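In these records, each integer encodes one residue's backbone shape. Here is one protein:

___
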Amino acid sequence: MARKSLTSPEISPATLSLVLLVVLLSSSAIHAGHDYRDALRKSIMFFEGQRSGKLPPDQRLRWRRDSALRDGSSAGVDLSGGYYDAGDNVKFGFPMAFTTTMLSWSVIDFGRTMGPELKNAVGAVRWGTDYLLKATAIPGVVFVQVGDAYSDHNCWERPEDMDTLRSVYKIDRAHPGSDVAGETAAALAAASIVFRKRDPAYSRRLLDRATRMKSLKKEREIYLYRSRCSNRNLIFFLFLQLDLQQWWLTKPFSLMLNRSLLQYRREASSAVWEARNITKGGELMGVDMLLLDEKENVFTRLLRSSFTHHNGCVALTSVAPYPENKTSDGLLTFLTPLHCILLSGDQVFAFANRYRGAYSSSLYHAVCPFYCDFNGYQDELLWGAAWLHKASRKRVYREFIVKNEVVLRAGDTINEFGWDNKHAGINVLISKEVLMGKAEYFESFKQNADEFICSILPGISHPQVQYSRGGLLVKTGGSNMQHVTSLSFLLLAYSNYLSHARKVVPCGELTASPSLLRQVAKRQVDYILGDNPLGMSYMVGYGQRFPRRIHHRGSSVPSVSAHPARIGCKEGSRYFLSPNPNPNLLVGAVVGGPNVTDAFPDSRPYFVQSEPTTYINAPLVGLLGYFSTHSSWR
């Protein structure tokens, strides 16, 4: 596999060691130590401050109240709940799904060291997945955003008073979004591991939504179009998809259109289960219909389609016919209306893979420039498959990863990891199996992971990675702390994988041991908590000195309990412009942080540096969980 080569200046081992020592130990005398357990507790509490919807009785940040309870109503769905991503009141699905994935990974790898905070961390995961289940409840559709970002950003008001547009945006077959769908599948799969023993039924539900076709039970429906003009026999064949490439054809069965719905369901269910027996227990991932209308002599194969309900009938709103749809005289035909029966069940990953495209192309004016997919959707397909493989152990996902490694560019931009770029995360996640001696076929991913490690170490890092004089890892673009926490998380996770395998990473003349990786990761955590030239903690509520004027509407506007009267869209501007500290402490929020000169303006208008986000905190939860028990690394 072709991978980007890393070019570094010639540096002697002695120089490398000195650079590493300076970066790791710079400013270390500022604090004798940190209370990582306290920081962990606060980093998880932050997510309670970002909650949308009906707040639970055990809500700890009491200045927050219920908000956005009618989200989704304009589209006829319930999309209440979930998280506000940052300091505004929009629910962006792409970063929310990534946040949920990283919270889950934090629990999976470091939950054992979280002590009493593990319960709260799992609760933070569930708050995200409960929303993602709502967002993926309709087959072939993923709701990816609630709230008009332009309308929201034109106001400065607390979420409890929101009167901005709560527009609902979705992706579907006609408007693909493989990136956000792939990340959503990853989040559901990762969370299913978190709940595997804690709540097996919920875990199965998450994994089913991410990987499997919906069954013919309870909440799951057979949709049918009842013709109002025909009672003739229609002959059906079921095409059942096994894995991602194999298909099986059932024997034909017929239905009279004037039969009862119950009879339709019984006969279709029988045909499906008979077909599943044919597959010898293989994983059923999809169903297509082959329809033969004997009277019209028309042979039509249907792809899963969108439906609308009207006057007791189900009408086809979109169908993608296959090229082989032909009448007896060889002409392409398209039946309208189509007399058909369709089994719902576009699982999220198959939807992302089958209908490929970037969601920012489909929804450009809604999601850009806020959360555009600048990196392409290919990495999310691999990322989703990697988590599905880890959660389900299905061979199909392993084969998908191996087959698509080069096509989906697994080796690109290996020193990037965040809500938009999953490359480094993919390689570290998959490498664990290689290091455990279970998956030699993934060896190239381990090579990528090793190169990632070398690309961000102080002294030999890639030109895109810098370290400030105070020791902070710095990457260009957006909130820098998102890079600090996500890349540090990968360093720590990989160091643990290496330790268990008794391996090291060769970086030219330098050998990167697991201990060194932990030191680099811990140095970044300590910088965040106050070991920096300003002696300031960048976590709100931790330490004696921390940001007081963060770019956050709910935190900066008086709470409902302090000011019960509504504060309108423009009325809140005076709080945005005020030099006073925020009245409500958003405990645990980590802001965007200082720049490459270690300077930080504690000012709301400087949102790149003063705004917190959920995807800064999510990987930090794992880091703090580990260091709360292993404060002295070896």
Notes: The chain is about 40% helix and 10% strand. The first helix runs from residue 13 to 25.
